[in-house]
Structure formats: structure tokens, C-alpha cells
Specification:
- By secondary structure, this protein is α/β, with parallel strands linked by helices.
- The chain has a single domain, classed as Rossmann fold.
Length: about 240
């Protein structure tokens, strides 16, 4: 399916919007990146997702901290990306989630809303799914959910409380894990699953023999077979939850 893209500016948020070219309402997916922002691998993934029949919105994470349009290199800018994620305040994350969801909801070409995210963005997507407007969420190796850490390591690192709010989840949740991911060990995954079970959340967890960021199609961690399987699981979730 042919797609087109545009840049949207909403308050403190700059976002890439990719959607099929046909003029109609498309199921919408807000998709937050890893800590490196809108890198070529993330843009390719967003384009691929849009080509399956979705309006995809990819917000930048650090609109209050860096120049809009900043993209961090995976190796050269790793520390800068880590510093930006650490300096991001929880209140900013929540404000930006609310802004993006409201802007997407108001679009004439957007239908029901789902969310997705990877790494740091996976936690943001999990948190966005607490909003009743979100019908489904795909969270790929979301960091910090099991131990409450999301940005602002000097202030709110142990008080994000996202998992403690699991009862607020109304939509379906897909969790994508890498068995060899050091950032979310087996004990961390078990903590998340137990909390979701206790909250009565409808969720599915998929575990792949892969490392952290295995869906990023550059570098030694990329696992094409696992990435394709996880991608198809996401598409199946969103088609089931967002289309009649």
C-alpha cells in the first residue's frame, strides 16, 4: 500500500505522520521510538506499519530538551541519548501523551487509536495505554516498567508507578520480549505479568530468543526472523482491536 508522510508540530511535540495515500479514515497508531528518536530504522518501521493500512504517528521524545528534528546516532551519540532520556521529566511525558492523543483524535483521517513503543518508548506506550481512548497497545521490550523507572533519574526514577496503575488499562496489551535482554530480565518480565494478571488485564506476551532492540534493522542485535514475527503480532493486534 502506498504511503505519504508529513511533519506535525503540536505544542512541545514534533511528530512524523505516515499514512496511506487514499483519502479516508485509517486506524491510528501512536508509536514512540527508543531513546535515539526518529532514526532511519524507526522511520522504516513506521513506514512499513503504515503500508499495512494504518495512520502512524511517531512523536519525538525530547521536545523540551533538544532541537526539533534531532536524531541520535546509535553509537556516536549513545551518551547524549541516555542523558536526554534521564533528564526527561515524568510530567512532560504525561503532558505529551495527552497532547498527541488529543491531536490524533481530532484528525479527520484518524479512526480508533492504538499505541506502540520500543525500549524507553515502550514504557511511554504502556503509560499512554492507561488513557481510555487507547484500544490496544504493543509494547516492545519496554524498559523501566518492572522497576518504576521512566526518565528523571534524579527525581522520579523510582516513582513512575506505571505498573501500579494496570487496573486502568481498558484495551488489549501485547508485550514483546527478548530472552537475552539484560534490561528486562526474567524476574522483571515475571513482575509485569503477575501485576497484569492481578489487574485482570487482557494481555499477550511473546518471548523471542533475541537481545534488546532486536527489531532495529541495523547492527549486531537485529534478528530479522524474530522482528518479523513480532511485527506481524502487532499488526494482528491492531487489526483486531482497531478495525470493525
Amino acid at each position: 500500500m502506498l504511503v505519504k508522510s508529513e511533519i506535525a508540530l503540536w505544542k512541545s511535540v514534533r511528530a512524523l505522520v505516515v499514512r496511506p495515500v487514499a483519502p479516508r479514515r485509517w486506524p491510528a497508531i501512536v508509536a514512540w521510538s527508543d531513546i535515539f528518536q526518529l532514526t532511519p530504522p524507526h522511520v522504516r518501521l513506521m513506514t512499513r506499519l503504515a503500508s499495512r493500512g494504518f495512520l502512524v504517528v511517531a512523536p519525538e521524545l525530547y521536545g523540551r530538551l533538544v532541537t526539533p528534528g534531532t536524531v541520535f546516532g546509535f553509537d556516536a551519540d549513545r551518551q547524549r541519548a541516555l542523558d536526554a532520556s534521564s533528564a526527561t521529566k515524568l510530567e512532560w511525558i504525561d503532558e505529551d501523551i495527552a497532547t498527541v492523543l488529543s491531536e490524533v483524535e481530532a484528525r479527520a483521517d484518524a479512526g480508533p487509536i492504538g499505541v506502540a513503543g520500543w525500549c524507553f518508548g515502550g514504557h511511554v506506550a504502556f503509560r499512554a495505554a492507561l488513557d481510555a481512548r487507547v484500544r490496544a497497545a504493543a509494547c516492545c521490550y519496554p524498559t523501566g516498567v518492572h522497576d518504576g523507572k521512566l526518565g528523571d533519574r534524579d527525581g522520579n526514577s523510582s516513582s513512575a508507578g506505571t505498573l501500579e496503575r494496570a487496573k486502568e488499562l481498558r484495551g488489549e496489551l501485547l508485550l514483546v520480549w527478548g530472552r537475552e535482554d539484560p534490561h528486562i530480565p526474567a524476574t522483571g518480565r515475571a513482575t509485569i505479568h503477575a501485576a497484569l494478571e492481578a489487574a485482570g488485564t487482557k494481555f499477550e506476551a511473546r518471548l523471542y530468543d533475541a537481545q534488546h532492540t532486536f527489531m532495529r534493522d541495523e547492527g549486531a542485535r537485529y534478528d530479522g526472523e524474530s522482528a518479523d514475527a513480532a511485527f506481524e503480532a502487532m499488526v494482528a493486534l491492531f487489526r483486531r482491536a482497531l478495525t470493525p
